[in-house]
Write a structure and sequence with these properties.
This protein is mainly alpha-helical. It has one domain. The chain is built from four helices and four strands. The strands form two sheets. Strands 1-2 form a two-stranded antiparallel ribbon. A hairpin with a 5-residue loop joins strand 3 and strand 4. It comes from Zobellella taiwanensis. Keywords: Signal. Pfam families: DUF1318. InterPro entries: YdbL.
Length: about 100
């Protein structure tokens, strides 16, 4: 269960750029994916920059968690994705298993 604490720590450490992410999520531009990353619901150059930056930082954190806990990156991403989707407020987008987007 230590990996869960690491996921929470990494997720909470994103506050430096969370305002941009939260604004984009509230506007329906970005949503949470099952793989622990965010995706562009409505693509634009600005949205793509935010998505790329967030995902790069999330992957770095997930790789660190996987390394420290001896868990595979795929498992860490899957569990982070579940956690992020559970924590997504109503009205924001989450990606379904078939790749489509749905408001929670």
């Amino acid at each position: 269960m230590r990996w869960l604490a690491w996921i929470l720590a990494v997720t909470l450490s994103w506050s430096a750029w969370a305002l941009d992410l939260q604004q984009a999520k509230q506007q329906g531009l970005i949503g949470e994916q099952l793989n622990g990353l965010v995706g562009a619901v409505q693509s634009s150059p600005q949205v793509n920059v935010i998505v790329g930056d967030i995902n790069r930082k999330r992957l770095e954190g997930y790789q660190e968690i996987a390394r420290k806990t001896g868990t595979s990156l795929a498992v860490v991403q899957s569990r982070a994705g579940q956690l992020n989707i559970e924590r997504t407020p109503g009205g924001q987008y989450v990606q379904l298993a078939d790749g489509s987007w749905r408001r929670k």
